[in-house]
Amino acid sequence: MTSPNSLLDTVTGVLDQHELHYHLDDDNGMLSGSLRGDNGTWRFLVEVVERDTERGIIIVSFVPVNVPAPRRGAVAELLNRINFSKAMAFFAMDMSDGEIVCKSGFDLVDAELTPEMFDGTFLLNAHTLDHYLPAIMQVCFSAVAPEAAIAALDRQGSLMQ
Questions:
Q1: Is residue 26 one of the residues assigned to a domain?
Q2: In sequence order, which residues have a C-beta less than 8 Å from that of residue 56 and are 6 or more positions away?
Q3: Which CATH number do you get for residue 21?
Q4: Closest Cα to residue 133, out of 42, 70, 20, 45?
Q5: Closest of 6, 1, 8, 53 to residue 27, by C-alpha
Q6: Of 37, 73, 93, 149, which one has the greatest count of Cβ atoms within 10 A?
Q7: Domain count, the chain
Q8: What does the pLDDT look like over 68-114, one tens digit per residue?
Q9: Could you report the per-residue pLDDT of 15-58, keeping only the tens digit for each?
Q10: Range of the domain at 48
Q11: Is 106:113 a contact under the CB 8 Å cutoff?
Q12: Residue 32 within a domain
């Protein structure tokens, strides 16, 4: 079984291959940085989990704005509609402050983490946030209905489910 440092080495190796700049908090097994996609720039966090019976990787990308209180219900509906079709990455919103994240992860209790596994999931997480960011922004800051925002994305081409 891989040690936490080996998990961390795998993660940093992949991020280094992509020439990403990140901050490593080795004491807590966390890396943070920023990504730029076609539709915006956002922060990401990768946590290497190694405690009690838990062992894994959690990838979190942060939508770059908080949803205003009056639009949180509509954005929650949008995120629910998106999540219904997703298998490997999902969105969540903190209803108290409007923070939205896109999360992905691995349970590695009885498994090895390969660079290809991490790379594929890290990129899927980033592409998922980047793909849906325009719909999130439309529903967040205009009167666009969640269904209409999804339909507009569908007309542009869908992201791998």
A1: yes
A2: 49, 105, 106, 107, 108, 109
A3: 3.30.1460.70
A4: 42
A5: 8
A6: 149
A7: 1
A8: 999 999 999 999 999 998 888 999 999 999 999 999 999 998 888 99
A9: 999 999 999 998 888 999 999 999 999 999 999 988 888 889 99
A10: 4-156
A11: yes
A12: yes
